[in-house]
Amino acid sequence: HQRLAYHAMLNALSLALSLCTAVRAQEIEFPPLPDSAFDAFVFHLPQSQTDAAMAKFTRQLDSLIAAQHPDTLALAIVRRRLSVLYILITQGHIAANHSIASLRFINAWKPVSETERSKSLQVLANGFMLFGRYDSTLLLMDTAIALNRRIYGDVSEALCANYLCLARAYNNLTRYQEALPYINKSIEIGRQVFQKPHPLLAKSIYVRGVIQANLKEFQAAVRDFEEAERMVRQALGETHPAVGNVYQMMGDTYNDMGDLETALNYSRRSLAIREATLGVHHGEVGYVCLYLGN
After folding, report:
1. Taking a C-beta distance cutoff of 8 angstroms, is the pair 162, 145 a contact?
2. Rounded distance, CA 152 to CA 134, Å?
3. 221 or 275, which is more confident
């Protein structure tokens, strides 16, 4: 029995390894994004877009630092955008350092730009989440929500993002019941703000699906994932990494429901998209490979 168990485990590991070392899929070309796309973290981006933006904003930062009298607001914005990029590649400490510097420059600009300060608070909160600083995340979001209500009122894209961030933090803390009201508030605001499919609203619906799955409400989770999938495909395209994210969560959920064939189907679709858009060495690809091996 022990030999059979080892044999089964080795087969699973071999499958994972063969998937991880497969020939690189034909990478899909994506057009460059506008600079403003990096003012907030929503979904993972194709590797080509991330690499191009990292090179661009690094050059901008070097140029600003080299200037005799640098524009502090421009420095704040470029540091925030670099922070988003480091969140995308899961370098939380570097992301947080850039966000803290961004806030310092914004506070030095007179008069202080409250809209730019709000954006940097949101990015810093996401950076803190990467390395488990949830107390700081919750504190920053309380400040950002008060600020955005003063600027925009009770319905805005910024508040949709703030409540999403709060829900993700409580979900990561396994406080799922506390996360639900915040994610529902984010979705409610998003449906009022966005007149057509939008990545931020799709992310909120996707995160509600994750929370429902954690609460073992699998049918509700599947409904949210299906809506998020439709919205992401309409807003970002059929082969965007965000579609791969949704497919993998659908695979996880069907696996928890005991439907292994459906789970495998969604995970394989997720793997194909992630390999083609993120590259075969990306951590998200490794996660799906390990999942399929298991």
Report:
1. yes
2. 26
3. 221
CA dihedral 175, 178, 183, 184 (to 10 degrees): 140
The structure's pTM equals 0.85
Q: HEC profile for the chain? A: CHHHHHHHHHHHHHHHHHHHCCCCCCCCCCCCCCHHHHCCCCCCCCHHHHHHHHHHHHHHHHHHHHCCCCCHHHHHHHHHHHHHHHHHCCCHHHHHHHHHHHHHHHHHCCCCCHHHHHHHHHHHHHHHHHCCCHHHHHHHHHHHHHHHHHHHCCCCHHHHHHHHHHHHHHHHCCCHHHHHHHHHHHHHHHHHHCCCCCHHHHHHHHHHHHHHHHCCCHHHHHHHHHHHHHHHHHHHCCCCHHHHHHHHHHHHHHHHCCCHHHHHHHHHHHHHHHHHHHCCCCHHHHHHHHHHHC
Per-residue pLDDT band for 29 (boundaries 50, 70, 90) equals: low
Average confidence score pLDDT of the chain: 88
Half-sphere exposure of 127 (CA within 13 A, CB side): 28
**Residue 257 and residue 221: Cα distance in Å, rounded?**
11
pLDDT digits (tens, 9 = 90+) for 153-203: 999 999 999 999 999 999 999 999 999 999 999 999 999 999 899 999 999
- d(C-alpha 179, C-alpha 150), whole Å: 24
